[in-house]
Design goal:
elongated; Helicase, Ruva Protein, domain 3; mainly alpha; 2 domains; 2 strands; two-stranded antiparallel ribbon
């Protein structure tokens, strides 16, 4: 007589425990497999709907913290083929909305620039335009021309609310 035949409940319980663990793992995997395409679809919709992608880079952003400030400078330098100093100057001109930077702007700490670039509370649902403006400034456009060029782009969400 085998062990399973003598105590049929033992084999059943062991099988149920194994099935329960595998079922939980399977459920987690299936949720994860569903999450990936949903994230991809929502990201694509946001990028296309707001015009947030330029040459495969997400550009509808602004320097909300130190890490993103550095990333914005890097994107301006890379996409416009300019030096890091020129990229930072273009980014600062976009943040402060000027064509020529006063000397006191350069003396401010980076945290002051970041605080200046954050959108007002009423406009936080809109796409940031600091980086797209900085890209145009790095290519030689004036601030007014850069804003005008972005205003004519139909996917620029900031112009709808005057932000």
């Amino acid at each position: 007589m085998t062990l399973a035949a003598r105590d049929s409940s033992w084999g059943t319980r062991a099988y149920q425990k194994r099935e329960g663990k595998n079922e939980g793992r399977h459920r987690k995997k299936s949720r994860y497999c569903l999450k990936l395409p949903l994230n991809a679809v929502s990201t694509y919709a946001q990028a296309r709907g707001r015009g947030a992608v330029f040459r495969g880079f997400m550009v509808a952003t602004g320097p909300a913290n130190d890490k993103i400030y550095g990333r914005c400078m890097g994107l301006v330098a890379k996409l416009c083929a300019v030096s890091a100093a020129e990229a930072e100057a273009a980014l600062l001109r976009a943040i402060y909305g000027v064509d020529e930077l006063p000397a006191e702007v350069w003396a401010r700490p980076r945290s002051a620039h970041i605080a200046q670039s954050v959108l007002p509370e009423s406009c936080r649902d809109q796409a940031q335009t600091v980086l797209p403006v900085a890209l145009l400034l790095a290519k030689g456009q004036s601030y007014a021309t850069a804003r005008e060029m972005l205003a004519t782009e139909p996917r620029a969400g900031w112009r709808k609310h005057g932000c």
